[in-house]
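As a warm-up, study this chain.
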Amino acid sequence: MQLNYCFPLELERIRKENIPVVIAGGTVEYHGPHCCLGCDTLVAQGLIEKLAQIKEICVAPYICYSPSSYAVADEKSGTVHVEEDAFEAYLYYIFFSLLSSGLHNIYVVIHHQFEQESLMPMTLSYMKAAKRATMKYLENTLGRGWWGSEKYSNYYDQLEGADNPFGWIKVIPTMSTNVQNATGYDHAGKYECSILMSLYPDAVKLERLGDINHWFTKSAADANTQLGDKMVELSLEYLAETIK
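Now compare it with the structure written out below.
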């Protein structure tokens, strides 16, 4: 199910059945001479599309312009970097709109600077915007003092349940720490190229690897679809278990 193709009837079913709404959070970022600029977006989007084949989810339009940073390469490289404050403000309105539509089971899946699930600027922007939008939505719908009202006297008992409003929007990696440890994780190297090759073979051109030499791309010479298929398999198992 694609959110872009939903009509009011489908939207009502998503709300009623609390079907997960899943967004790929990607980047446009330099990945060497052999790997496409949309690598991070495509990995997240490709896994989400495969997940939709085995589990009922609603795939929302992906977000690709983001705080990718110029840590890897400069402005001439094709990287598109959006400053964190501007990006967070943009996300806030997206999340607030989705919540106001009655969608309260939202997942953002990120494949960028998420080594060992560390919290880097882009991920933090998503997380902060999600909490801000949730707070504003609750205040708008329940009024000021909502948390202190008797209606929420069982708030702490529900922190781990579906009724916890601060769990309505979750930001997760494409590959959990366990999955990363079982295979590997890098930037435009053996592992990232392998998973991208598995999902979108035309997005990697290993014959161009020698056009520009980088320390972080040397291992890409060993990239292969067999490894990529395994990474996809493990990532899908993790995502299917996590997205509920």
